[in-house]
Amino acid sequence: xxxxxxxxxxxxxxxxxxxxxxxxxxxxxxxxxxxxxxxxxxxxxxxxxxxxxxxxxxxxxxxxxxxxxxxxxxxxxxxxxxxxxxxxxxxxxxxxxxxxxxxxxxxxxxxxxxxxxxxxxxxxxxxxxx
Length: 130
Hints:
By secondary structure, this protein is mainly alpha-helical. The chain has one domain (about 40-130). It has six helices and four strands. The protein has helices spanning about 1-10, 15-20, 25-55, 75-80, 100-110, 110-130; strands spanning about 60, 65-70, 90, 100. A two-stranded antiparallel sheet has the order 1-2. It has a two-stranded antiparallel ribbon with strand order 3-4. A hairpin with an 8-residue loop joins β3 and β4. α3 packs across α6. The longest helix is centred in the N-terminal third of the chain and has 33 residues, at about 25-55. About 15% of the residues are buried.
């Protein structure tokens, strides 16, 4: 099978395969960084879930009797990151790592996405109750 694949790659195939095999340790670095990024995304999701819970806890009945989310998010950012076991944080889809501090959590959390997720959750809760 490998001989057939090498025949398809032409004259550059064997040297490229040899170079890849000689430098395959680099792939380990990419895989390790990928695992770190996945754990940092998990931290971001945890902080976002706490922000959604804070928004839902502040929901008040509106004029029509349905719950309305507050305009501003009131969250103890220090408490939100205190329970995280991994020291890095990053937004979903981003690769740059940030230290897991209250300031970084507040800066990185996307308020629009968090509010939309809270609205969807509130809508599902109200549908279940009716």
